[in-house]
Design a protein that fits this description.
- The complex is a heterodimer of chains A (about 475) and B (about 475).
- By secondary structure, chain A is α+β, with helices and mostly antiparallel strands.
- Helix content of chain A is about 40%, strand content about 20%.
- Chain A has 15 helices and 16 strands.
- In chain A, helix 5 crosses helix 6, helix 7 packs across helix 9 and helix 14 packs across helix 15.
- Chain B is built from 15 helices and eleven strands.
- In chain B, the strands form two sheets. Chain B has an eight-stranded mixed β-sheet with strand order 4-6-5-10-11-9-7-8, sandwiched between helices. Chain B has a three-stranded mixed β-sheet with strand order 1-3-2, sandwiched between helices.
- In chain B, helix 8 links the parallel strand 7 and strand 8.
- The chains are: A alpha+beta (about 475), B alpha/beta (about 475).
- At the A-B interface, loops of A face helix 9 of B.
Chain lengths: ~475, ~475
């Protein structure tokens, strides 16, 4: 029996506003409990919500970036349920008329093809607080710092057909919101998290199977594993004569399995209705145009530009546009050097990336600035140093020993290009290795590399390799 | 001094006939003497009032006094008052000290008025008789066996008994106008959005509107001027300049077209009330107004629509009272569900529970379209009725309530009959229009109110129309015998 997996994702992106979606309280992760919650966030009697304009602008930015329809009129609704970390007894969300509708996002599949994933909608809502179950001796604490934090819930169509596709979609969306600067993308802190709706059906079956919703997946790895587990579970269940029930499940990363949380029957009746405290959100052309004007170059377009403008491979262009900061850094290196885009790409994706990775740093925290890296590359370009010596200089740059010229000067790394000086070294090496010379001349061509090595060693790596090659070739001939 | 209106008190203060401190003491003494009889106040803030009064006197000495500076008044206990218990007439908030001021309170404070205390009300403003208050019923100063109306019954009774010259009220379905009528005073519910709802504990957010209650239209104009205005903290507040409501009170009524809706004079209207209202209408003819019979054909749908919309919104608005962060919490909850059910079960009274249940039902899956959505459609029909009427007439006139004040306990067990007490006022809230009630006579010793309904933002005109009548009548100057 061949099975097909059907997945739809609901992604919650925390919007990077300064203050909350309906109050003026600040948003910062990790503050002391209940220090970032004002009367509105606490749901005090008589308080009223006022929409944070910035949250609406950010939602529109995402909508424009995924080719979606921006609703000229959208409506905030109350989702009613009781929970201790939900101060008002309802969450303000959008229900029937969300701000963003009918978008699409294309993802690159492993086989090199592209696939367009439909985005059903994206709506604004407020986050709830957090229950604290430790340190309260059988009681629970409530921290309302997070209550009222703006979220954009982005709902995909059930267009994803594997865990890998789901991860690719999630990564693409992650890249997008971070590019747009509307979300910090920090998954450990819960700024970007996902619920996955998963079902299976027999291949060719026009009907979808019954789905299970897996809640609160906060890493790409968990999404992949949870979906894979869930797909296996559902297939095993059906093949052994059982039936999938519609329910909410939780993923346990320690056990690597999903577990039932509540069934459809136990689900709340949220009694949605339009929030009478908030008028419908009406967006005019000026607002939408201003949001459009604030859009950065989007990742796909930037990648294409890197390919055509800098002659990079699709792979390098993809790596260099993975984040806005990396792309900016790369372009700053190219600009400072005044050309040589491929050399720049090699260094940024090669040595620099390796060092960043080793030290677990982001490009923004690179100890080597774009200008300093360009300074190093300039010396490779003008043959002051060889590529090999450049690696040593780069290490010194990384360690903060000044700019490339100072390091080259201080360490005496300037490449030797004076022909007579190189000849002197070569003569010495040949004189010291008469046996090898004899063998070479007898036809053992492979010993050429030996001589190059000896010359480079004797010159402490500073001799210009091309000149060494040429001169050796001459001299060894005799 | 207590017999004077706000305008007269303001003039007396300005002329230096008495200080605000003297005035405040006089009213505090009356409250001490009469409140046990009426139960109009839940909280009296004597010390703070005297401090405010002295500050007002000081301000006057500096030459910075306005028309309300030093004038005592009271706030319905639905308005949050910083550092003062704000109970909303409920056990749920019996020990709740508000941590901030409502915008209305802030603005009235800024005008220099003196707060005497917080007035009694139906629990969470749900009631038409003030009998649902956790603090017990308020009595009508005109007849202690009668209810004062509700939900702003404490404010109405306090003004009628001269325990305060003016008070704030709120009106969701008639809660300013009906008690004003039943207590023989003047009260205006402004256009929805005219007065900020920030800090006013919500009953039904799309209907709630604060407004002033006083003896005369002239006084209401002064108070409304201080209460009204755009508030960026209330998204439903309207950004529109506040006129000087006192400026055109004397404008003549010649040629004024008054609409008399057929539906407001039919079955259910007490004939003696009808007579008093007819007499007032005759007086308006003498003042130069022209009467036009009109129809508001969807009037009979107002009460059913209201009792879907208001409970639906209240079921959600009152969800925050869960015993977790503030308000009543049951003893020794054994788990979360127990905490919720007992805290809410103990904290809320019967009428509040009834409306929460009705509203929860109306919003439930499978019923939403049939009830809530249908009620919203009816709201539009009702608004449309008024819109059409205002193409023909300048103002609509009729009884405020179908009967005079009923006896305490008379309708307490019959919610439907009780709800009918607001039959003429509710449509005004559903449409968001301004409405005013003024005293126009008595049936026995119980007052009759006349309702004026205006088009959006015509408060100035309504006050003018009421004021002109009060220039040629003295109902508003009569005091209940025991409180004269």
């Amino acid at each position: 029996m061949e099975w097909e997996t059907v997945i739809g994702l609901e992604i919650h992106a925390q919007l990077a506003t300064k203050s909350k979606i309906f109050s003026g309280a600040a948003i910062a992760y990790g503050a002391e409990p209940n220090t970032q919650a004002c009367a509105i966030d606490l749901g005090m009697p008589g308080v009223l919500p006022v929409l944070n304009r910035e949250a609406a602008r950010m939602a529109v930015m995402l909508g424009l970036s995924i080719g979606a329809e921006i609703a000229r009129r959208s409506v905030f609704a109350r989702k009613n349920y009781f929970y201790p970390d939900l101060p008002k007894g309802y969450q303000i969300s959008q229900y029937e008329l969300p701000i963003v509708q009918k978008g699409r996002l294309s993802i690159d599949l492993e086989d090199g093809t592209r696939k367009v994933i439909g985005v059903t909608r994206a709506h604004l809502e407020e986050d709830a607080g957090k229950s604290l179950h430790e340190d309260f001796h059988g009681q629970s604490g409530i921290d309302l710092n997070r209550a009222g934090t703006p979220l954009l819930e982005i709902v995909s169509e059930p267009d994803l057909r594997s865990a890998k596709e789901a991860v690719a979609y999630m990564k693409k969306l992650h890249q997008m919101v971070v590019y747009l600067g509307i979300c910090d993308g920090n998954m450990q802190e819960g700024s970007f998290r996902c619920d996955a709706n998963v079902s299976v059906r027999r291949k060719g079956d026009p009907q979808f199977g019954t789905r299970a919703e897996i809640k609160n997946l906060n890493s790409f790895r968990f999404v992949e594993r949870a979906i894979e587990f869930e797909v296996e579970r559902q297939i095993d269940l059906i093949e052994s004569g059982g039936k999938v029930v519609q329910e909410t499940r939780l993923y346990d990363p320690d056990q690597g399995e999903t577990r039932s949380m509540r069934s459809k029957e136990e689900a709340n009746d949220y009694r949605y209705f339009p929030d009478p405290d908030l008028l419908p959100l009406v967006l005019d052309d000026d607002f939408i145009n201003a949001a459009r004007a604030g859009l950065p170059e989007l990742p796909d377009i930037k990648k294409q530009r890197f390919i055509t403008q800098y002659g990079l491979s699709a792979y390098d262009a993809g790596v260099l546009t993975a984040s806005r900061e990396l792309g900016d850094y790369y372009e700053a290196v190219v600009a400072a050097l005044g050309g040589e885009p491929k050399l720049c790409a090699n260094w940024v994706t090669g040595d620099l990336a390796a060092f960043l990775n080793k030290d677990n740093r982001e490009i923004a925290d690179s100890p080597v600035s774009a200008v300093r890296l360009a300074g190093l590359l300039r010396r490779i370009q003008d043959q002051t140093i060889s590529g090999k010596i450049a690696k040593e200089v780069f290490e010194a740059l990384w360690a903060g020993e000044g700019d490339a010229d100072a390091i080259i000067e201080k360490r005496g790394l300037r490449q030797i290009t004076d022909t007579s000086a190189i000849e002197k070294v070569i003569d010495g090496v040949i004189a010291a290795n008469p046996d090898q010379l004899a063998q070479y001349r007898a036809g053992k061509d492979k010993l050429f590399a030996f001589f190059v090595g000896q010359v480079m060693k004797a010159s402490k790596g500073k001799a210009n390799p091309q000149q060494v090659n040429d001169l050796l070739m001459e001299k060894l001939k005799g | 001094m207590h017999e004077k209106t706000i305008a007269q008190l303001g003039a007396g203060l300005a002329a230096g006939h008495f200080s605000s401190e003297e005035l405040t003491r006089a009213f505090l003494e009356r409250i001490e003497r009469f409140n046990p009889l009426l139960n109009a106040f839940i909280t009296v803030t004597a010390e703070a009032a005297l401090a405010q009064a002295r500050a007002a006197d000081e301000r006057r000495r500096r030459g910075e006094a306005g028309p309300l500076t030093g004038v005592p008044m009271a706030h319905k206990d639905i308005f949050c008052t910083d550092g003062v218990r704000t109970s909303c007439g409920s056990r749920m908030l019996d020990r709740f000290i508000a941590p901030y001021n409502a915008t209305v309170v802030e603005q009235i404070n800024a005008a220099g008025a003196v707060m005497l205390g917080k007035t009694n009300m139906d629990e969470f403003a749900m009631g038409s008789s003030n009998e649902t208050s956790f603090y017990g019923p308020v009595r009508n100063p005109w007849d202690l066996d009668a209810v004062p109306g509700g939900s702003s019954g404490g404010s109405a009774a306090a003004v009628a008994a001269r325990l305060t010259p003016g008070a704030t009220g709120t009106d969701t379905g008639g809660s300013i106008r009906q008690p004003a009528a039943l207590c023989g005073i003047t009260g205006i519910k402004p256009t929805y959005g005219r007065v900020s709802r920030w800090g006013m504990i919500a009953y039904a957010s799309s209907l709630d509107q604060g407004g002033p209650m006083a003896r005369t239209a002239e006084d209401c104009a002064l108070l409304l001027g201080a209460m009204a205005g755009f508030d960026p903290r209330d998204s439903t507040s309207v950004d529109r300049p506040v006129p000087d409501y006192s400026a055109h009170l004397d404008q003549p009524l010649d040629g004024l077209k008054i609409g008399l809706p057929r539906e407001y004079f039919g079955a259910g209207l007490d004939s003696a009330v009808a007579q008093a209202v007819e007499a007032a209408i005759a007086e308006y003819r003498k003042l130069g107004a022209e009467m036009v019979e009109i129809s508001l054909p969807n009037s009979q749908l107002a009460i059913p629509a209201y009792y879907v919309v208001a409970p639906a919104e209240c079921s959600s608005n009152l969800a925050r009272f869960d015993g977790v962060r503030y308000g009543h919490r049951c003893e020794d909850p054994k788990d979360l569900l127990d905490l919720y059910t007992r805290s809410r079960g103990e904290g809320f009274g019967a009428e509040v529970k009834r409306r929460i249940l009705v509203g929860t039902f109306a919003l439930s899956a499978g019923y939403y379209d049939a009830y809530y959505l249908k009620a919203q459609q009816i709201r539009r029909l009702i608004s449309e009725d008024f819109r059409r009427a205002f193409t023909q007439v300048d103002v609509i006139m009729g009884p405020t309530s179908p009967t005079v004040a009923f006896n305490l306990g008379e309708k307490a067990d019959d919610p439907i009959t009780m709800y009918l007490s607001d039959i003429y006022t509710i449509a005004v809230n559903l449409a968001g229009l301004p409405g005013l009630s003024l005293p126009v006579g008595f049936v026995g010793q119980r007052p009759v109110g006349l309702q004026l309904i205006g088009d959006y933002f015509t408060e100035e005109r309504l006050l003018n129309i009421a004021h002109r009548y009060q220039q040629v009548s003295d109902w508003h100057n009569r005091a209940p015998a025991a409180f004269g």
